[in-house]
UniProtKB/TrEMBL annotation:
InterPro entries associated with the record: DinF-like (IPR044644), MATE_fam (IPR002528)
Primary site of residence: membrane
Transmembrane segments: 12-34, 46-67, 88-110, 130-151, 158-180, 186-208, 229-250, 262-285, 312-335, 341-365
Taxonomic superkingdom: Bacteria
Similarity field: Belongs to the multi antimicrobial extrusion (MATE) (TC 2.A.66.1) family.
Keywords, in A-Z order: Membrane, Transmembrane, Transmembrane helix
Compartment(s) where it occurs, according to its Swiss-Prot or TrEMBL record: Membrane
Name assigned to this protein: MATE family efflux transporter
MF GO annotations: antiporter activity; xenobiotic transmembrane transporter activity
Any one annotated GO CC term: plasma membrane
Pfam families xref list: MatE (PF01554)
Amino acid sequence: MPITARDREILRLAVPAFGALVAEPLFLLADYAIVGHGLGTTAVGALGVAGAVLATLVNLCVFLAYGTTASVARQSGAGNHDRAMRSGVDGIWLALGIGVALIAVFWPLAPPVVELFGANPGQSEQAVTYLRISLLGTPGMLVVLAGTGVLRGLQDTVTPLAVAVGSFALNAVLNAWFVLGLDWGIAGSAWGTVLAQTLGAAVYLVVVARGARRLGTPLTPDLSGIRQAGTAGFALLIRTACLRVVLVVATVIATRMGEAELAAYAIATQVWTLLAFALDAIAIAGQAITGRSLGAGDVAATRAATKRMVQWGVWSGAVLGLLVIAARPVLPVLFDADPHVAGLLLAVLWPVALFQPVCGVVFVLDGVLIGAGDQRYLAWAGVWTT
C-alpha cells in the first residue's frame, strides 16, 4: 500500500514520539537489568513495588502532557499562538506545584504505602529507600510531561525525542556507576534516575522559555490559567486513575504470591508498558492532528486521519506482538538469572503479545478523543470498564 501525505504526517509525529514515549519504561528496564544482575531477586521485587507506586503517581498526572497537547494544538490550529504558549506555561507551573506537593505528602507515607503491597521485610526496606529518593525527582518528571505536551501541541515531537534519548543514556550510565561501581545499592539506582530526569526537565524549561520570549508570553505564574489547566485535566485524571487501579491491584496480588512471582510480574509489566508507550506514539499523533484540525474547523480531515491512524494501530500492534513472541527466550536472561523467575516470565509474555493489536486500536482512539477535548467520555469509559 503506497504511503500517502496523511501517512507521512502521522509518521512525522509518531516516529519521534515513539522514541520519547519509550524513554520512561526504558529508564525502569535499565534499572531492572542493573539491579537484577547486581543486587538480586529481592531488590528486583523491591524495585517492582516502588516502581508501581511511582508509576501510579506520575501516570495519574499524565493529563499534564495530554491535556496540554490538546489545548496547545487547538489554540495553535486556530492561529492563537500566544494563547497556545500561555496554556503551555500554565501547565508547567501546575506540574511544578503538583511535584512539590507529592514530595510533601508521600515522603512520610512511604513505609505504610509500601506495606500495603504486602512486601517482605527485606523488600520493604529497599522499596522505601528507592521510593523516597525517587520522590525528589517528581517535580522534574512532571515538568517533562508538561513540556512534552507543549511541544507536541506545536507539532514538534523531535525535540522531546532528543531530550528522551539523552536522559536515557545518562540514566543508564549513572545507574551502572552508582549501583555496580560505587556499590550504593538500590539507592544508587534511584539517584541515577532522579538526576537524569531532573536534567531533562531543565532542558524543557529552557526550550519553552525561549519560545515564550519570542511570542512575548509572560513566564510568571497565572493562577487563573493554572486553575483552568487543572480543571481541564480532572477528567483525564479519572480516566488514568481507573487504569492505575487495575495495575496496582495486580501488583498487590503478585506481591502476596511470592518473591519470584513479583519479580516476574514486575518485569512483564515493564515490557507491557514499553509496548503500550510504543503504540501510544500513534495516539500522540492523533492528539496533535485532531487538536490542530478541529482548531482550524476542518472536521473532514479529522475523520480521515482518524480512520488511517486506527489502521496504523492494528498493524503496529500485530508487529509488536510478533516481536514479543520472538524475544521470549531472551527476555528472562536479560533481567534476572533466577530459573523460577525466568519460567514464570515466559508464560506471562504470551498474553502480553496476543493483546497488542487490540491495544493499538484502543490507544489510537484514546488519543483522538483527547485531541478533540472529549475527556469526559474517556473518564466514564474508564469507570465502567474498571
